């Protein structure tokens, strides 16, 4: 905890980083549908055009594939571009440009054409977003060599990772969970970089390694605090960087805890957990593993109705139940933990962010 | 022949002869990549590119040989690329559909239909933002207009008044499928008008007319930046992809084929020069001999060039700062 230090939300941190980068680099362009509108992409681009003008903050026609190609053309001509999509699904219309041109040009051109663009996209959740506004599709992007895929979970990382992404000479995708925008935490005023090539150890522990990404990190920390009361200390790793994937930290932790739980925002099948576990097992990287488990979304689209979404989304409840199961705790302790959890969080709403989850952490 | 006429002749012939040699040598199986030859469509590339300067940028698609050569792309680097060799313009990573030579403004070719168009528009936006007086030209075929991203890019170029010429080489066929089966009308200027872009439709086989038209377009863009759409009607002499003629498959009718053969862009131009007594058969033969010598040398260079080192396979996935 950073006492007496400035606490702001992740969306404020993203706005601040963008503004500071605009101040620093003249050939930096922000483009997207809604970047100049009165809401400014959930506040993350709010009013930037008033300071920098609409030739640097470019309001785009509704042409996702087109503006992605345009951003690539700009970047090949020595511009730095930040492209913003209000939903991940909008970017699906631009997979052609992202996969064929952004990801491959440096390779195909034998190192001639760099594509330094950053694409921010947002995962929706809650208030009945439904099947086409709430997908967590990070693994699709993570499949493609040449791309970097980041998922920050704290305001500190939101600012620093965006800065590092903007300084990176490669196409970098930043996937932000909509609820992560509300997370509050310490953020220095001055610009700074943080690494964008590996996960981070958030909380040390010894019983089980929990790896989570994006907003789920908040859920895992909340769950962990409850488990701590009963002498269970999970080691928590924030995955942060999905591509290039570096599992060293996870291996080190698993060598100690022998239990691994991966909590992801997307589908469980063909998910992040699948890749991590495959790498660990096929390379026989850890001896005497006791348990491995994954928590992810079930195999069907996101329903709109909150009564259905309740069973669809995974939260602290599933995390706690899974840890209890994995560690094979005795019945009495199990009951105690679950009843404590129910008291602490009697009715988990899945369609609005819980006020408890604001941080800072 | 004045200098301009000579340059145009040399360019047309060079493309024709290179493509012919690729076609003839393809069966040797040393060029193991798909080739989309520009035979029959040379005048579009030469007419447009002769009016550009070196800082103007060209972007192209799968059928990029003519654009690359017309923009003075390095011949040896092109043939090495087709042979998959180390000195290829992409180091052997792209093949025939990815030709580029940044040193002369031949920026990039991308085979996915219409995929190059927004990239070129982005380049034009960079010129505008940097207040450069240069022009971007993007070449594509008739099928690209059936892709949504053409419209996205054209609309954007129009609202931002970007200095770009959209050059559509209409050869009437998307692989084997005639334009009549794909669109209600083969006047594509309608796809410019709907985006408030000025446009012109003309023969793609009359090189001097294309040259003068492009010059006019460029001087108008330089005075008053805005995009332009140029439709060039032309024909390919061999199959969509590969070295051979495939007319035995009967997807193009004989009248059409013979009409376009009679209007072959190289013949039209050499006949024009001969009629004006600016070119003799003897001079023409001499030029062809000289060009073939250069081309033979380039093929030999490509044949003898080394393959890329195997340990470079995973190089250039990510750029370092």
Percentage of β-strand residues of chain B? 5-15%
Major β-sheet of chain B, in short? 6 strands, parallel
Average predicted confidence as pLDDT of chain A:
93
Structural class of chain A: alpha/beta
Distance between the termini of chain A: 6 Å
The radius of gyration computed from the alpha-carbon positions of chain A, rounded to a whole number of angstroms, is 20 Å
How many whole angstroms does the radius of gyration of chain B measure?
Answer: 19 Å
Q: What is the ordering of alpha helices and beta strands of chain A?
A: EHEHEHEHHHEHEHEEEEHEEHEHEHHH
Report the CATH superfamily of chain B: Thiamin diphosphate (ThDP)-binding fold, Pyr/PP domains
CATH class of the largest domain in chain A: Alpha Beta
The termini of chain B sit apart by 51 Å
CATH uppermost class of chain B: Alpha Beta
Sheet with the most strands, sense and barrel status of chain A: 7 strands, mixed
* H/I helix tally of chain A: 14
Which superfamily, in CATH terms, is the homologous superfamily of the largest domain in chain A? Thiamin diphosphate (ThDP)-binding fold, Pyr/PP domains
- Helix amount of chain B: 40-55%
User: Which chains have the largest interface?
Assistant: A-B, 44 and 38 residues
| CATH-defined topology of the largest domain in chain A | Rossmann fold
Structurally, the number of domains of chain B stands at: 1
User: What's the β-strand tally of chain A?
Assistant: 14
